[in-house]
Amino acid sequence: MTTLDSFTLLQPYKIAEETFVIPWALEAPPVGHFPMNSMVIRGAEPILVDTGAPAVRAQWLEAAWSVVDPLDVRWIFLTHDDRDHAGNLLAVLAECPNATLLTTWFSIGRMAEEWDTPINRCRFMTDGDTIDAGDRTLVAKRPPLYDNPTTRALFDPKTNVLWAVDTFATNVPAPMPETAAMSPDEFRDGQLFGGRLVSPWVALLDAQKFGTVVTDFQHLNAEVIAGCHCPVLRGPQIPEAYDLLRRLPEVPPWTEFTQADLDQWMAAAESSVPPEQPRPSGT
C-alpha cells in the first residue's frame, strides 16, 4: 500500500494485483483538493480505465507507459466522455494500435463535437455487459451517482476492485492515495459534499428507490473501491461510504459559491500581494 509519504501525483501506485491508479489532483480553494484519477489493469490483456486529463497529457502518458507497454494494451474502457476521463483518448488510441475502445453509442456522438472517434476500433459496452480480458471477466455497471448520462463503472471480480467513476467523489485536505488518511469528519463531510457537487439532482430522488439502486451496486461486494475523484476506499470505509450515499436524497442541497464569494476571495488575494517597490531613479 502506498503511504502518504511516498505518494506523488502522476506516479502510479498499486492498489491490488496487477491494478494501478494514476493519481492527479486539482487544487480547489477553499475546499482543498479534488482527485482526478485513472486506472490501469495490467493482466493478460491490459486495460486502461479512462485516459486522464489533457492538462497533463505528456505526464499522464509517461505514467501510463511506465506500468504497461502501449503496444500490449488490448482494451480502453472509457467510463464517459467528460474531459477529465476522455481528454487523452486520441493520443492513447494512436499509441495503442492493438487496443479496442469500450464505449457507448451516445459517448461517440457527444465526442463528435470535438473529434471523430474511429468507430471501427470501438465495441459498445453498456450496463450489465461483460468483457473477457483473458485472465478476468470485467463487468460494466451504471453507478448510483454520475454527472454524465453515458457513465458506466467497471468491476473486476478477480481482484474485487471497483472503479466507481464519480460516485464517492470527495474533496481532500491534500492529495492522498487512500481515504484512510482522512479523519472521520473529513471522510463523512467529503462524501456528503462530493456527492451533492457531482450529482445535484440527487436532492430530487425518492430515498427508498435510490436506496435500492445503491444496494444493487453494493452487492458487487467490492473489497477495493477506486474512482476518478476519490482516494482508494477499503475495509470499514466501504460500507460507511454506502451508508452516506443512501443519505444524500435527504441532505439539503449544497449551496453554490456566489459572486459575493468570488469578490471576497479576490479582495483577500489583492490584500496579500506586497506593494510594488519603487523603481531606482534613472531606470
UniProtKB/TrEMBL annotation:
Transmembrane segments: none annotated. Gene3D superfamilies: Ribonuclease Z/Hydroxyacylglutathione hydrolase-like. InterPro entries: Metallo-B-lactamas, RibonucZ/Hydroxyglut_hydro. Residues 35-196 form the Metallo-beta-lactamase domain. This is Metallo-beta-lactamase domain-containing protein. It comes from Streptomyces gardneri.
